[in-house]
Fold this protein.
Amino acid sequence: MSRNRLAALSVTLLVSLFLAMSMGTSVLGSQPSQRARDDIPRQLLPIYRAAADTCPGLPWTVLAAVGKLESDHGRSTARGVGSGASSEGTAGPMQLGIGGKAGNVLARYAVDGTGDGIADVYNPADAIFTAANFLCRNGAQGGTDLRRAILAYGHTDRYLDRVSKIATSYQALAPSPAPGPTPSPKGRFVGPNTPSYQRLTPTTKRLYAKVSQTFHTRSIGGWRAVGSVEGSDHPHGRAIDVMVDYPSPAGRALGWRIARWAVAYADRLDVKYVIFNGRIWTRTRGWHGYRHPADPCNCNHTLRHDDHVHISERH
């Protein structure tokens, strides 16, 4: 990786680090081993961890292992890593498909990891966030089928085995705290011990509890330092993202149940607006079409909110 690219990363690091840090798990959870600290460029380690946070169930170590195999974390001089494309049609530090035999993975899963409005396959932050999105949509979400997700990326059992070994070597031996709400012996709702939950407003914590208890889900994001759009409620602790299984019909049905429930109890729960499946509900207009400003083609499933229900609170 060139000095100029590493220098540019240091400028955008904070944005990429918190862009979609809804779950607050991997950054505060499993710690990097000494091998990980020695092998992964210091500018990339927090980006791997933040990108994995966008997909509850995806260990940051697996994402980093993919980056190691694909380009030695961007240090490879092979064709297609820093410019151009490989013979298979892959490009960038995560070797994402941009056409040809590899297909156009970038077009389908692109995520702007730096917040500059452009998803650049050669930009490490954009590439890592996009790779996390790919793994998430292909089985990693909720940890349901990591094996399938990795095979979708690398296609062979040998690739799966190598990712597993590298990921294991990257994780410190100290146990990580379990993510998600923990039951109280007295029956009182207790939220996760992460900034994602702890920095929510009291009203939003109440909403978090109601959603968790009503729909029996633990995949709920909350506070993050930087929102993906101007005026986002996440940095103020006034919004949650309830993850659903995408693209399964059951996940979509659950998402709409949650969204309609939030609207039905909008006054009682102090709901400001709800976004799901390319639609937004507001108090003044009801349900209508939604398009994220960073997704002009309206084709990014995360920015369309196909994989999560966003609920903002007024207070």
The radius of gyration is 19 Å.
